[in-house]
């Protein structure tokens, strides 16, 4: 198992297109990464993309590739590594976290969120 498994060119929706939001709304989406080397979690970066196409439920980025642009990046410089745990029957580490979108009056804030001391 390398760093983490993913399906390339797949798009995961955190906030559906045309969803109305208020200035106090937060949206969470859960993710995980796996690795045989815990140190791989020392730096985590996730690009948040914006879809501007016509499909109500886009999934594959290679279809209408020009409809996606990078909105922002969420970066962790070492906090998430402390949330990882070893899966002894699989011989790998797993790190579970949420990506959070928080809307304010004039801004969008993004961050990682996680639960501590979970076994």
TrEMBL record:
This is Uncharacterized protein. It comes from Pisolithus microcarpus 441.
């Amino acid at each position: 198992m390398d760093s983490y498994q993913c399906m390339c060119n797949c798009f995961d929706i955190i906030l559906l297109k045309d969803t109305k939001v208020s200035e106090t709304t937060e949206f969470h989406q859960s993710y995980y990464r796996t690795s045989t080397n815990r140190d791989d979690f020392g730096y985590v970066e996730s690009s948040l993309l914006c879809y501007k196409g016509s499909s109500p439920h886009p999934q594959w980025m290679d279809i209408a590739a020009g409809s996606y642009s990078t909105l922002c990046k969420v970066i962790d410089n070492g906090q998430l590594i402390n949330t990882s745990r070893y899966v002894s029957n699989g011989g790998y580490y797993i790190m579970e976290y949420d990506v959070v979108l928080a809307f304010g009056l004039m801004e969008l804030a993004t961050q990682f969120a996680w639960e501590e001391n979970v076994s």
